[in-house]
Amino acid sequence: MMNLRPDRVLIQGITEPLGSYYAVRMKAYGTNVVGGVSPGQGGQLLDGIPIFDLVEQALPVVGRVDTTIIFVQPYWAIDAALEAIAAGIRQIILVTAGIPPLDMVCLLRKAEDTGTVILGPSSSGIIVPEKILLGIQESEFYTPGVVGLISRSGTLTYEVAWELTQAGLGESICVSLGRDAIVGSGFPQWLKALDEDESTKAIVLVGQAGGGREEATAEYIAAAIDKPVVAYFAGSHAPLDRRMGDANNIISYHMSMPIPESGTAQRQITAFKQAKIPVAKRPSQIPELVKKALKK
C-alpha cells in the first residue's frame, strides 16, 4: 500500500554526488531523514545524518523506516533495493535511471511477493508542498493546494505544477512515476491512493507518447476513480513514425519494430475522451479544466 506521507526516510547511496546534495535539501525541506547507507562510509555524518555501511546495520539504530530513496549506480541498484526489501522496508523510490531491464523484472517479482511499492527507476520522487520532499523534485514550483499530480514526464511536471500554482490551486502531492522502459508502480496504483486521500480534491495526470499504459489507465479511471481527473499528454504533435521520450524508450521502440499505433499521443487522447476525461491541449489549459471539473 502506498504511503503518501512517510515520516521516516532512509537514503541509500547517500555519499553519491546526487545523494549527498539532495539528502541535505530533503532534510532542509522538513523531511525526516533518519539515516543514510553507503558501503565503506559507515560511521560518518552528513549534515547530522548518520551513515551506515548496510541497511541491516542502520535499522537497529534509527528504528522504523517507511521509505528508502536509492541513488546508487544503475548496475548496483537492484542489490540496494533487495537489501531494503530484506530489511522490511516496503516503499522504495528509485531515482537512479537506466537500471538494466532484467534487474527490474527480478526486482518487481520480489516486490510483488513482499507487497513492496516501487517508484521508478528515473523517478524524481514525491513532494508534499512545504512538508515532505522525497527525491529530486524542484520544490520552488510547488505550493500547498488541492490537486494531486501524477506524471511520467520529467521537467514538464514542473511546468504543470507552476501553472497550478499560478492559478491558485496548488498541489496536495506530486508523484513522478519514472521514464524508463520498465517501471514499478503506475498510474492506476497512485490514482487509487489519491482518490482515497482527503487532501486531494482533483487529480492531474501527465502522460507521454509511448506504450499503451495511458490507454488502459483511461478505462481504469472511468471504472474506479470518483474524483475529477484532467489529463495532458506530451508529444501530441509528434509524427506517427517518430518515437518520443528518453533514450530507453526510443531504443525499446526501434528494437521491437514493427508495432501498432497504440501508444501514440493521439490514440491516448482518444481513449481519454471516450472515457469522458478532459484532456488539455497545452499545460496552460490545465488549471481551467481543473476548476471546471471541481464545480461539477
Describe it.
This protein is of the alpha/beta class. It has two domains: 9-119, NAD(P)-binding Rossmann-like Domain (Rossmann fold), CATH 3.40.50; 138-295, Succinyl-CoA synthetase domains (Rossmann fold, 3-Layer(aba) Sandwich). 36% of the residues lie in helices and 21% in strands. The protein has helices spanning 17-29, 55-62, 77-86, 101-114, 156-166, 187-195, 213-224, 247-255, 265-274, 286-295; strands spanning 9-12, 33-37, 45-46, 49-52, 67-70, 91-94, 117-119, 125-128, 132-135, 144-151, 171-176, 202-208, 229-234, 279-280. A seven-stranded mixed beta sheet has the order 3-4-2-1-5-6-7, sandwiched between helices. Helix 6 packs parallel to helix 7. The chain is globular, with a radius of gyration of 19 Å. 49% of the residues are buried.
List the SSEs and their pairings.
Layout: E1 9-12, H1 17-29, E2 33-37, E3 45-46, E4 49-52, H2 55-62, E5 67-70, H3 77-86, E6 91-94, H4 101-114, E7 117-119, E8 125-128, E9 132-135, E10 144-151, H5 156-166, E11 171-176, H6 187-195, E12 202-208, H7 213-224, E13 229-234, H8 247-255, H9 265-274, E14 279-280, H10 286-295
Parallel strand pairs: 1-2, 1-5, 2-4, 5-6, 6-7, 10-11, 10-12, 12-13, 13-14
Antiparallel strand pairs: 3-4, 8-9, 8-11
Helix pairs in contact: 3-4, 6-7, 7-9
Kindly report the CATH topology of the largest domain.
Rossmann fold
Q: Low-confidence runs (pLDDT<50, min 5 residues)? A: 249-261
Order of helices and strands: EHEEEHEHEHEEEEHEHEHEHHEH
Per CATH, the superfamily of the largest domain is Succinyl-CoA synthetase domains
Number of DSSP helical runs: 10
